[in-house]
Amino acid sequence: MGKKTVLELMINGDTFEIACAPNMTLLEALRDKALLTGTKRGCDTGGCGACTVIMDGEAVLACLTLAVEAEGCDIRTIEGLALDGKLSPLQEAFVEHGAIQCGFCSPGFIMSATALLAEVPSPGREEIRRHLAGNLCRCTGYVKIIGAVESVAVKDRGGEK
Amino acid sequence: MHLPIFTHRQPADFAGVVSALTEGSGAKVLAGGTDLLVNMKHRIEMPETLVSLKKVADIRGISLEGDATVIGAATTLKEIRQNSELERKFPALVQAAMSVGSYRHQAMGTLGGNLCQNTRCRFFNQSWQWRQVRSLCYKVGGEDCHVIGRKHTCFSTYSGDVAPALLVLDASLRITGPDGPREAPLSTLYSGEGRTPVTLGRGEFVTAVVIPGAAARGKSRYEKFSLRGSIDFPIVGAAVWRGDGSVRAAYTGVDRAPVRASELEAELAGQELTDASLKRGANLAHKAAKIAPTSVHPVSFKRELMGVLFVKAMRDIS
Fold first, then answer.
1. Using a CB-CB distance cutoff of 8 angstroms, which residues of chain A are in contact with residue B105?
2. Count of domains observed in chain A
3. pLDDT number for residue B296
4. Fewer CB within 10 Å: N-end or C-end of chain A?
5. pLDDT at A159 over 80
6. Domain range holding A149?
């Protein structure tokens, strides 16, 4: 396949028909074709984590994933986390903890942490730190972000500290 | 940064991969994409065709054949990291896989892709625009190696984490190509030349890594020194293995290929491992590599690190 084809991408439970050439990344398909601009383009080379989305349950870098390779996969973006206008517990925790400043890195952090919590419901602080390494924030530092994720994990452990 | 234009193929079996790789010229295998697609965005590599391994059967997974462990080339680094049997038998391999990039890179990146990754150098691992400030280096179409100031040679550095761990485990590769399957020691995958660091022939690709059962009868360890604690390539990475009265050591980040430290190994063969003998071995480590200033770190620093990491790794398994 060298020329444009029409892909069917399953994004947040909806099917999007997207005309694209093989050299289109999933990030470009999400932002420029599906107009889901919550997923951010940062370094565009896999170093900052701003473009993190969840594909078949796995947090991946959309800037280094070809759109054609994402066909048939269940793709989740930041737009798919809120249900009926209610933020996910992790999104709420980011707000409560002030884990957002300019907000550019937040979708990547939240998608990374969402994937972690789905796989390991009660990760320790060290596991959270290791999992979020690769998501860069240039405003807040990482303390509040890690605290926000930890608060959701702690809640899952029944509120124990 | 847009990717350059290419044709995308998604075969279902080994024969389909070989066929797609041999059609036309300039086809490359696409596994996790975390190395290749970055290089393509920077216009370091511009293959005409990408042959995806995503739908290829029998190329992913970890199994036993007799006492040998066979790991499919498209097995992700995350799958290796999470495998308790590998962690028990070959800790260096799991430690090396864990040290690659971020968790995202480990979920996307594959064993075969990590082994076959391109070499790195400060003169070409930059954007296309950045590279325009001086003449192109030999690796990306020019004539000179800016690292050593010679024509028609390339001293870019191999920086994969997993290769040294597999080298001390005496691993071999299963390779399939137009002439059928073959098995070869891992060390033969690397040419020792920076411009074309991997020796695979036209139409060939790695299908699996085989670790002999004997490797599980020793202790192993991977130590990495990098600028940042995560998402970073090694400045120097060292893998060691100890068993049957012998010591093996291999390095990454120090030469155009991952290297086994043969002088060091010969010095310590059959020796009692004391502080003094480890120091003697550490002093010989740098002889295995021709270190070039391909990063901001001085050659002398890397040379010393080779010994320091060796001693640290050996103490951890003593």
1. 46, 61, 134
2. 2
3. 87
4. C
5. no
6. 89-156
- CATH code for the domain in which residue A152 is found: 1.10.150.120
Q: Has residue A160 got a pLDDT over 70?
A: no
- Nearest-CA distance from B195 to chain A in Å? 22
Where chain B has pLDDT below 50, the residues are: none
Q: For B42, which residue in chain A has the nearest alpha carbon?
A: A45
pLDDT band at A157 (very low <50, low <70, confident <90, very high): low
pLDDT at B153: 96
Asked if A45's CB is within 8 angstroms of B41's CB, the reply is yes
Q: Judge if A32 and A70 occupy the same domain.
A: yes
Question: What is the complex's ipTM, to 2 decimals?
Answer: 0.94
Q: Are strands B49-52 and B27-30 parallel, antiparallel or unpaired?
A: parallel
Q: Give pLDDT tens digits for B241-264.
A: 999 899 999 999 999 999 999 999
Assigned domain for A161 exists? no
Length of chain A (residues): 161
